[in-house]
Amino acid sequence: MGSRNGSPVAAGPAEIFTDLRAEADRIRELLAREVPESDVEPPPEEAPAAHVARHAEEERARVLAAGARGLEKLAEGRDDEIGDDESFGLEAIVLLTGRPAILVQAGDFAPQEGEWAVLDGHREAIRESIARVGRVDVSGHLSLDWVGTGFLVGADVVMTNRHVAVEFARGDGTGWTFRPGLGAALDMAREFGQLPGAGGLTYAVTEVVGVHDEVDMALLRVAPAPGGQPLPTPLAVAADAPADLPGRQVYVVGHPAWDGRRNEPESMRRIFMDVYNVKRLQPGAANQLLPTGDRPGAAGQGGRGGNVMTHDCSTLGGNSGSPVFDLADHRVLGLHFGGRYGFGNYAVPLWTMPDDPLVGRADLNFV
Q1: CA-angle at 272, arms to 268 and 278, nearest 5°
Q2: Proportion of the chain above pLDDT 90, given as a percent
Q3: What percent of the chain has pLDDT over 70?
Q4: Do 79 and 142 belong together in one domain?
Q5: Based on the domain organization, do 90 and 171 belong to the same domain?
Q6: Of 187, 207, 224, which closes a domain?
Q7: How far apart are CA 198 and CA 282, in angstroms?
Q8: Residue 28 lies inside a defined structural domain of this protein
Q9: What is the count of structural domains for the chain?
Q10: What is the pTM (predicted TM-score) of this model?
């Protein structure tokens, strides 16, 4: 498969699926179960939308069928025969079934099949995680209306990335303040089909607690709007390293963003069906602790001790600042800050940070 620098996919199908032929058969079975289009014509006012939806379904089926052919070629060791359509189809299968980016609606997610049917058994705990993650919106910015993802880690403290916070905050050597004319808020309900700020679930950023000098981390203080809902209890942050990190099932909650500067617009449109910038659940696996020096462009972004945690959840730019949860106990293992196709995605391992001065000052909920 060719390199796609803006791809959300961090691992290839051979690394994710244990039986490539079985996955090809499952994809074809899924396509065979598709309900045929109705012969009944929609009302005139609904016809354009119906036509677009039908075209999207047909395109998705075509891409998945090409990917199934690619899986069979991989299984037979015929990698050099995989064409562009099959290459993209393989990537789509990884994203749609192996490492999906599942839409969140009403704080919940649709039942999953295959490997990720396991999520249903954790539904209540995952719903609690989802409710404590929001989109970092900005006001007064010349070109942006949101800048990343953040999550509640203290009674009134949110964690995000340094490169997210510097879009609206600045430091003077003694502390951090808002840039003149800019403000920020955390919208916990920025979901597909949901109006901005619906349900009183937007919290104003009232203070920049601090921006880390060495790690891609920022801590923000938030407060409810007058008459709005109180803040939920914070997420549990892992105070110790998980056992057997490689292969451990994890999930990210964040807001994948379309960015024409980095992503392939047509590819991303076909995979995400033009639905970006809203909350998604993105399951995957943790891989390893990687010394920062072994990662391209990694200066000043790992945890204390110079390590980063790698994972293969499907992410895009708007996932900056997302939490990486342990599916076993739903503690936050890492702070996602970036990724590179074919190498993996990267997170600050938070269990290395309890004695950090900035973290200690913010009184995070380490468990």
Answers
A1: 115
A2: 60
A3: 81
A4: no
A5: no
A6: 224
A7: 23
A8: yes
A9: 2
A10: 0.85
Average model confidence (pLDDT) across the chain? 86
Cα angle 67, 72, 74; round to 5:
90
Domain end marker among 180, 208, 224 = 224
Q: Which amino acid is at 313?
A: C
Beta strand ranges found along the chain (DSSP E): 102-103, 133-139, 146-152, 157-160, 169-171, 176-178, 183-187, 202-211, 218-224, 249-254, 280-291, 307-311, 323-326, 332-340, 344-349
- CB half-sphere exposure, 295, CA atoms < 13 A: 27
Same structural domain, 33 and 91: yes
- Report how far apart, in Å, the C-alpha atoms of 70 and of each of 24, 32, 81, 97, 162 are: 8, 18, 9, 15, 40
In a domain, 344, yes or no: no
Q: Please, which pLDDT band fits residue 93 given cuts at 50, 70 and 90?
A: confident
Q: Which domain holds residue 17?
A: 13-98
Q: What is the pLDDT of residue 3?
A: 37
Which band of pLDDT confidence, cut at 50, 70 and 90, is reported for residue 83? very high
